[in-house]
Design a protein that fits this description.
The complex is a heterodimer of chains A (204) and B (184). With 204 residues, chain A is mostly helical. Chain A contains nine helices and no strands. Chain B is built from ten helices and two strands. In chain B, helix 3 packs across helix 4. Classes of the chains: A mainly alpha (204), B mainly alpha (184).
C-alpha cells in the first residue's frame, strides 16, 4: 500500500517559522508527519553537508549523491532519531558514514588518483594550476592546494579537521560524531594541523 | 614545558582550551623559542586559510533530484508486500507444528509410564522394602500355631544389628522370635 502523497514543496517555511523552530523541534514535527518541517531541515543542512562531504571525498558529483543519500535516509528513517543527541550530530554522523563507505568502495576499485598517491609521489600531488596575478585564479590555486593537502590526511584526521576547521563544530560535538573520546579528538586535530602546516608551508 | 609538550598543546592554545597556568607555560616557552613561535604562527595562518575556503553550494538540480528519489522510495513496493506467504498448518508453520506434536506425544508417553498404580479403593499401596522371614518351626516338630511369615522392616534389622555379634550368638531361634515380639 502506498503512503499518502507527500506535501513536499520546494518553498521553505515562512521566515518567522524558520527562526521559531530549532532543528530538534523540526525533526519532532517531521516525525509527527509535518513534511514542511523536512523541507526546512533540508534547506538548513543541504549546503553544510555538501561542504563537509565535498571536502572529504573531493568529487562534486559523488558529494551530491552522498548528501542526497543522507537526506533520503533522514526522510525514510526519521523515527531512528531520538532526542538525546543534537540533530546536527546525527546528520553529520550519517553523512560521514556514507562518505567513508563510498571512499572505501572507491579504494577497492584500485583506481589511482592524486589523493591515493604515497608520500613518494608528493611531487605530483599539486594541482596543475599555476599561480596567476588574477586574484580569483590565485584563490582557486590556494583552495586546490589546501584541498589536495586535506586529501593527503588519513581518514580519521581528515574527518576531524573538516569538522573543526571548516564546519567549526565544538570538540564535544566532533567527539560524538566520530564516536571517539574527547582527548583523542584533540590529539587528532593537533596532529592533523601539524601535518597540514608541513604540507602547505610553501603557501606563505 | 619541553618541545613535545609544546607541540601537543598548540591546538589547545589556538582554540583557547588551555587553563591559565598551562597557557602561561606555553607562552613563556614560545617567547623563549623563536622557531616555536614561528610554528604557531604558521599553523594559525594555515587554519585561517582553511577557514577561508569557499563554502560549497548544492547545484540547482539538487532539490528536484532529491524529491524524485523520495517519490521513488515512497512508491517502491516494500519487501514485506512482495514476500511469499509461508504455508501454515492450523496457524503454525509445518516445522513448528511437527516439533510441537512430537513434544506433546513424548510428554504424554512419559507421563502415563510414570503415573503410580492405585488399588480399587483408590488408596495408594506403599512399596515394601523390608525382608520376609518365615516363622521358625518348633524344635520338637510340633506345628507352629502361627504359620504366617513375619515382616521385619529394614529398620528393625538395623536395630538388631546394633547388638554385638557375641550377644547375637547367644540367642536361640525362639529367643529371637520372642525378642521381635517384645519389640512390638
Amino acid at each position: 500500500m502506498n503512503q499518502p502523497s507527500p506535501n513536499l514543496s520546494m518553498q521553505p517555511l515562512p521566515m518567522d517559522n524558520q527562526f521559531r523552530y530549532t532543528d530538534e523541534e523540526l525533526i519532532a514535527r517531521f516525525q509527527e508527519g509535518d513534511e514542511q518541517a523536512y523541507v526546512e531541515l533540508v534547506n538548513r543542512y543541504r549546503d553544510r553537508l555538501m561542504t563537509f562531504v565535498f571536502r572529504f571525498v573531493n568529487d562534486m558529483e559523488q558529494a551530491e549523491d552522498i548528501v542526497q543519500d543522507a537526506l533520503l535516509k533522514l526522510y525514510t528513517h526519521k523515527h531512528y532519531y531520538k532526542n538525546i543527541a543534537k540533530f546536527s550530530t546525527w546528520m553529520y554522523t550519517i553523512a560521514g558514514n556514507l562518505a567513508k563507505t563510498e571512499l572505501r568502495k572507491k579504494k577497492s576499485h584500485k583506481t589511482t588518483n592524486l589523493s591515493q598517491m604515497g608520500p613518494e609521489d608528493r611531487d605530483y600531488e599539486l594541482p596543475a594550476v599555476e599561480p596567476d596575478t588574477d586574484e580569483v585564479a590565485q584563490s582557486e590555486y590556494i583552495e586546490k592546494k589546501i584541498q589536495a593537502a586535506i586529501q593527503q590526511l588519513p581518514l580519521h584526521f581528515r574527518t576531524v579537521t573538516i569538522l573543526r576547521d571548516i564546519q567549526e563544530l565544538s570538540y564535544e560535538e566532533i567527539s560524538k560524531i566520530v564516536d571517539v573520546p574527547l582527548g583523542t579528538v584533540k590529539s587528532r586535530i593537533n596532529r592533523a594541523r601539524l601535518q597540514l602546516q608541513k604540507d602547505l608551508k610553501d603557501l606563505k | 614545558m619541553d618541545r613535545y609538550q609544546f607541540e601537543d598543546a598548540i591546538s589547545a592554545y589556538l582554540d583557547n582550551e588551555l587553563n591559565l597556568s598551562d597557557r602561561q607555560a606555553f607562552e613563556s616557552f614560545m617567547n623563549a623559542n623563536p622557531d616555536a613561535k614561528a610554528l604557531v604562527n604558521d599553523i594559525r595562518a594555515t587554519m585561517k586559510a582553511i577557514k577561508g575556503m569557499p563554502k560549497v553550494k548544492a547545484p540547482s538540480t539538487f532539490m528536484p533530484n532529491l524529491y524524485k528519489r523520495i517519490e521513488f522510495e515512497k512508491n517502491r513496493p516494500s519487501k514485506k508486500n512482495i514476500e511469499k506467504p509461508s504455508r501454515t498448518l492450523f496457524g503454525f508453520t509445518p516445522l513448528y507444528a511437527g516439533v510441537m506434536t512430537v513434544l506433546i506425544a513424548s510428554f504424554i508417553t512419559v507421563g502415563v509410564n510414570l503415573w503410580p498404580d492405585t488399588n480399587p479403593s483408590g488408596q495408594q499401596i506403599p512399596a515394601f522394602t523390608g525382608n520376609v522371614t518365615n516363622p521358625p518351626s518348633s524344635p520338637a516338630g510340633v506345628p507352629n500355631s502361627n504359620p504366617a511369615p513375619t515382616f521385619v522392616s529394614n529398620e528393625a534389622v538395623a536395630d538388631t544389628a546394633d547388638t554385638t555379634v557375641a550377644k547375637k550368638k547367644k540367642f536361640q531361634l525362639n529367643d529371637k522370635v520372642q525378642f521381635v515380639k517384645d519389640q512390638r
